[in-house]
Amino acid sequence: MASNSALTDIPIVDFGQFLHGGKEEKELVAKSVDNAFRNVGFVYLKGHGIERDLVKRCFEWSAKFFALSPETRLLAPHPPGGSHHRGYSAPGVEKVSQHAYDAEELKKLREVPDYKESFESGNVNDDAQPNIWLPEDKLHGFRAFMEEYFTVCANLIHHILDALSIALNVDDPGLSPTHSKSLFQLRLLHYPAIDAEQLRNNARSRINAHSDFGTLTLLFQDHVGGLEIEDPIHPGTFRQAAPIDDTVLVNIGDLMARWSNDRYRSTVHRVGLPPSVPVTKPVPGLGVTTEGEREPFRPDVVVPDRYSIPFFATADMDAVIEALPGCWDEQNPKKYEPVTAWDYVQMRMAALYS
């Protein structure tokens, strides 16, 4: 599939005006976010309220975690299957797929493994999906920081849901109360360094083309690059979603697309070969690169380690997802059967870890 960096840009919206503005400012920001999700499915938010230093520290903790020995990382193992999505997954364990559920089809997809590793955590007090942590003496302070960062990201999700409630004319108290955080997930991702030629020839993938299956996703990424989103008007053509300092990239997931009766786009995206490589090397332990020029990849180039931090939001387990009032009528009927958030998530997770 083609890659193109010259297509329509992902909008950049100053969310600080929503967080700190009055009614008129909130409505203007809500309209801008609504337009971005309708047309592209993604938006960059600046002024989002998560401090730069906190994001930097999260990348530092991520680098420390993945620098531990494999034996130590596996002291917090992701359980077999996808029903309990917490803990550490080694490279090749998870294979991202796009609406593939047939056993033979999934087997074929796994012939090109996702070359990444991850650590998942969720709500601090979650009986349904309890967290799986390393022993404290293996990485002192890691758990406390990740719990803090989870709470900050969850708060931002609720502010974005408030903006969508305004845009969709959802009656008070809006969409926020339908998200109690029990299905929220904070993920640390590490893509080990890899020969550019392996990505170019599809001998390995970092993450295959897919859409997220929750309601909203926040993404913090380092400066290595490689994230691409599919052009909504030209399926099969992908464009770079380049890192932009002091922003968070937000996208719609499948459940929110269903909830809005496809008013919002759950856009397919992937992580592959970046368009260029930083001339300077990544800063050890930070998961980011120093300032410097970039140069095109050559066949002999090694793509450096990439770190990203997505935060996935999903409605409460028993929330019934069907077209919201105002998102359907006789001319635009409901497109999907009702489904609970839990049933839908479990169906998608089973495909990832089957």
From TrEMBL:
- The answer on whether this UniProt entry bears the keyword Metal-binding reads yes
Q: Which domain of life is it from?
A: Eukaryota
Occurrences of domain Fe2OG dioxygenase (ranges)? 182-315
GO terms of molecular function: dioxygenase activity; metal ion binding
InterPro entries of this UniProt entry?
DIOX_N (IPR026992), IPNS-like_FE2OG_OXY (IPR044861), IPNS-like_sf (IPR027443), Iron_ascorbate_oxido_reductase (IPR050231), Oxoglu/Fe-dep_dioxygenase_dom (IPR005123)
A GO BP term here is:
small molecule biosynthetic process
Pfam families for the chain: 2OG-FeII_Oxy, DIOX_N
The protein's UniProt keywords, in alphabetical order, are: Dioxygenase, Iron, Metal-binding, Oxidoreductase
Task: Name the family.
Answer: Belongs to the iron/ascorbate-dependent oxidoreductase family.
Q: What is this protein called?
A: Thymine dioxygenase
Please tell me the species this chain comes from.
Massariosphaeria phaeospora
Organism ancestry: Eukaryota, Fungi, Dikarya, Ascomycota, Pezizomycotina
